[in-house]
Write a structure and sequence with these properties.
GO molecular function, one term: ATP binding
Subcellular location: Membrane
Oligomer: single chain
Protein name: ABC transporter domain-containing protein
Number of domains: 2
Family: Belongs to the ABC transporter superfamily. ABCG family. Eye pigment precursor importer (TC 3.A.1.204) subfamily.
Distance between the termini: 48 Å
Shape: elongated
Number of strands: 15
Strand content: 5-15%
Helix content: 40-55%
Bound molecules: adenosine-5'-triphosphate
GO cellular component, one term: membrane
Length: 685
Amino acid sequence: MASLVRYEVNQNPRAPRSSLEVETIDIHPMPAAGNRGGVNDVIRSMPEVNGVSLTWEDLWVTVTNGKSGSRSILAGVSGFARPGQLLAIMGPSGCGKSTLLDALAGRLGSNIKQSGEILINGHKQALAFGTSAYVTQDDILMTTLTVREAVYYSAQLQLPDSMSKSEKRERADTTITEMGLQDAMNTRIGGWGVKGISGGQKRRVSICIEILTRPKLLFLDEPTSGLDSAASYYVMSRIASLDQRDGVGRTVIASIHQPSSEVFQLFHNLCLLSSGKTVYFGPASAANEFFASNGFPCPTLQNPSDHFLKTINKDFDKDLEQGLGGRTPTEEAIDTLTKSYKSSEAYQEVRRQVAEICKKDCGAVEEKNKRRHAGFITQCGVLTRRSFVNMYRDVGYYWLRLAIYVALSLGLATLFYDLGSSYGSIQARGSLLMFVASFLTFMTIGGFPSFVEDMKVFGRERLNGHYGTSAFVIGNTFSSVPYLLLISLIPGAIAYYLPGLQKGAEHFIYFACVLFACLMLVEGMMMIVASIVPNFLMGIITGAGIQGLMILAGGFFRFRNDIPKPFWRYPFYYIAFHKYAYQGLFKNEFEGLTFPGNPAGGPRTVTGEQILSDTWQMERDYSKWVDLGVLLGMVVLYRVLFLVFTKTSEKIRPVLRALVSARTPKHTATVMINPSATPLHGENL
Ligand SMILES: Nc1ncnc2c1ncn2[C@@H]1O[C@H](COP(=O)(O)OP(=O)(O)OP(=O)(O)O)[C@@H](O)[C@H]1O
């Protein structure tokens, strides 16, 4: 067996600390885990105090793809992860690494069936917030924030109120420095079209955010992708060293592609997968011997992990057939290794370990290790501030829209300039108000792409339990209010005063309030759309379609008495917010005015009230304030609906999946680590 050297990263407790200073980290070589004795010695030598042991037995994951039937992604894999240990999941691309992590973390998609038994400390249970964390493969971050802001806001959201602001800041700064990001602290993350930090740095920011709470169980999906070998080593060693802090043995499970030999030496256990089957599970230090004993020795000077992956990657077997590889066909090699593994001591040891963990009653993690996040009010405050900053810095969120609104209102103002009070101005006033209530509110869709980016961040953070949907809705709503007020007041004033609509501050304030309510309302509607449709293009099309139908039903293009009764009048006319916007704006404009009569004949003068009833067929049995009230009620209703939709899907999806899994024959019931952790509808947005 090759001699291995592990590096243990120790914290120097005497190192001076201030809010900006960082813990000093010394790296000392220590004997390899595999050299201290047999498999059992390695496993038992690790600290397990208060830790989380995870076991999975005969885990099957099957994907159903409509008519094309179902396909097994994981085929009866078993394994365990113990506190104080780093388990690496390796295998060729597409072998099921992420799926295994997702299954263990209870995050599988709704089209996926899962069976087998996943236990935490031998129990079927859900983990509380802060006990486990998951770093996904994609870096979903708020691109407008700097590294420090992103991590600090996250610390404020995740860490309990019992920690002071300076303690949270210190934890954020320490974590940033641990991940080697001190030089990029004040650089914006950047994203589409705006260059910011590098891909590898983004990876490290994602890790920073998830390790802020120092979770006892940490899932990492390709934590080192995009990192050079030195950065990979430091990142992994610091993740491994997390278990040295606070005396708690941390359980780390990481899928990893191409570990350097130094990184490989950090792994305690290795789970090697090929096409969803276990090729090897056991001490990483013994994998070389396993391959050698089956006729696949690692060539001298070759990185063992490269050798393992090369031996079991069958994606390029065509090249082999054409004589480019000059080695045993991969299918054959995999077959030999999987069969050998099933009859090996390593496999028996896995079974023994799983049985031992399940037998040893370590207690329900939930009870012992319950952690708290920041309080609801703190979360709402932090989310409002963060969202406000994001909206301020993202030109596409509101500023661009404000500019377009100003341009449009100037267009309106010049087209309808100084309407006067002639008979002809009746029609012009109606058209102007209709345009304001329809098209200006329709334009709110322009902010949807930016909102979708927000939703992605929300999806990741909610799935990781940082905060709930209610806090997000409140944060998003309050942060948008100043911008929407600005849009309602500036372009609103241009479109109101230059054409010369009814004089009086009260009339203008009402006009701006209706515009504001409609803008808020459409934003709420787009939130609901974003939570239902799978991508933002579909979101824009759906949102535009819904609004188009509402404009048609609003009572302007077809007056109230002419609207066909089934569907259009009952109920759509009453559901469409345009009805209340038209009614309110028209009443606000015409009530109290008098116009000359039709020059073609009829009375010499006509009152605004008559015009409202006879020309526009408005409902005059209630006041314009009721219309505004209904609009504001709808603003609240739409946001509550978003909340209900998101929460319902959270509850329904796991139940549906459990039902589907229960119908799968042969295997036992499925356990999810966090039953509420299901992918958000709009996750792919
Ligand atoms: N929800 C899903 N629907 C359909 N197929 C899926 C789904 N999830 C995973 N798969 C398929 O399962 C296989 C394994 O995917 P997975 O993402 O687990 O691979 P991986 O080993 O993590 O790959 P990589 O290293 O490239 O990220 C792939 O072929 C993938 O297409």
